[in-house]
Amino acid sequence: MGDVEREDPASTPRQVRTLFQRAGRLQSHARTLLADDTRARTEARRALSSVRTRLAREELGAIPLTRLKDVTVGRLRIRALEQAGYQTILDILDTTPYALQLLPGVGVWNARQAHAAAGQIAKAVEETVALRIDVDEQDDETTALLIALNRLVNAGPDLPRASGAARRIEERLTPLLLAAQPARGWLRMLLAGQRGRRRAREAVARIEEVIAEANASETALLFSQTSVDLLRPPVSAIEAWVDFELRASEYYNLLAEIAATEPDRVASEGFLPDDISARVKAQDLDDTHRRVSLRGYQSFGARFALAQRRVILGDEMGLGKTIEAIAALAHLWACGERHFLVACPASVQLNWVREVETRSTLPAYSLRGGDRAAALAEWIRTGGVAVTTIDTLHRLEVPGDVTLGMLVIDEAHYVKNPAARRSQAVARWCGRTDRVLFMTGTPMENRVEEFRNLIGYLRPDLIPGLRNGDAAVGAVGAAGAAGAQSFRRAVAPVYLRRNQEDVLTELPDLVHVDEWEEFSPADLAAYREAVADGNFMAMRRAAYAVPETSAKLQRLLELVDEAAGNDLKVVVFSYFRDVVTAVHRALGGTGALGSPGSPGEPGDSGDPGGRVHGPISGDLGTARRQQVIDEFTAAPGHAVLLSQIQAGGIGVNLQAASVVIICEPQVKPTMESQAVARAHRMGQVRKVQVHRILTADSVDQRMLDILRGKAGLFDTYARRSDLAESTPDAVDISEQTLARQIVEEEQRRLATSRPSRA
Fold it and tell me: Which domain range does residue 493 map to?
């Protein structure tokens, strides 16, 4: 399949016939590609049907017989069926109406109605059954499905582009070739009449345009390469399962498309008003420079950023906000924009550069380190995506004649304080940029007012519609009604939020377990001393004060050993560096981490088995941090990654881990959710166990009691709740206020106090 060459405009029947031959070859290539694609997808759908049937039968086997009454409005008499031993809907489906009617007390009508009602339930279950692929249960049906999907996944992101181009060529050439038929001979043209001749000449010109466009984009070569990928022999079962573990998100993306299991439309569109949703869906999204397929909700997110121009993308962590941003940048690049700037925390700068290079054809430049000046100069000269840190944005000098196609601020909640220097730098850049995308899974942490501040950077015109209270922001509509519902309506033009449970139905289960322990005598003594001193931070880590007798540490080791026995990877989070150090020593690590104050050499754990990686901490360089994560991910079987929660809980992907251990509760509930979302995110293939280790009757318990309301604040305003369950003032607790309250309560309880150092 070579390129279709273009000659001068066809003017003679011979030239037209030659043109028809070239067009026919191009159309044949397109049809071949579409046939290969259809064949591969049909095979995948057939395998999927077998899996869904098996899953549906498992679910039907758990549905009690009494549910038949729900379908038949209670008219069925099911006692006779139960007495005959039928207990579930599956029992009814596995027999026939004739066999049922022979049972005493059933009869013909009841038998037919019971079987029909069971069929209705079965159809509903099969249409809605959640498809989750469990790597620990590699049954034959799922293996066949993965083998079928592997062919499509390995065709890569070029497959959707090739299929789309093939459909467009087929749709355009078929009527044009028919209309141009008279131009193939003088006699035909003569008999076609004046109108027919004009139509034929116009069709010939259009055919030449189609061929010229195909040559310019090397479409025939794309068809050829994609067909070769689709015709490769199927991989083995082992290869399919290994590839699925490595690229689970790509398999699930394709599976959602084939199974037509995209999430509820309203939920996937963030519950936006209809007028905004319609405007977003009308926005084009060019995929020429994108190298990753998007799910429906991701495509909508990218279009939202483009259509609304200055927005906050607040998707819950693990849904692929970075990919949505890159899709928007790739579209703008195709439209002629050339300069884009991403500002992010230092911990994810390298990851951003990697993602841009992997997910698109856009060049990426890291504006950090010794090559910063050269990279900046090259970016200014040639364009692409420049990636810098939020904290160094104020030092970035870019000529005024360089126009940004889009400014992206990742983890935008870092600039919630307008008085901070980094916030002021972001505000200045927002002022010189037409398109701005803020990305954050946690648009506020303590006060709704912080969310208002983010909106102020982007759309100051929306601020009059928001009321600034003493401690938080409510929402005021035309009628003056305040609350979460009106707040979300007011911010809809600028804010899009989707949650995991609404759009990622395939995510494995997330199991939370609170592990309650008692203080050892030594740790209790340390705790009482910290309470007496009013030292809140010392109270929080007192349970690890004497590692040799620490009940918390002992439980942590038991959890790690259990994970090792099941060959699972573990990530351990703590706010405190000395707690991470204690865990590192207890797991067998030695070396530079021997002293709590030394940063150590991450990855050089010193344990004989090499299973301990890290720690990831704030003083760890970006490149080294990514290297530690890569080594942890690539380690065969069981491994443990240690991290301070501030450093490893944001912006990194830890799907390799399926056990998360949190050493103590966090002051900010969002910090814990961020850490968990590093593992429980798109691409995770195993059930994620989250173990939070707590000490009873201590600061841990007091914190949980107080923070329960605080965690609800985000749900009320930033998620999709329709009603505010409590006022923001009631749950707006700063860290200092929380510390003082807990210290005072514990001092009263233990009847001890010294000057507070909370």
Answer: 266-502
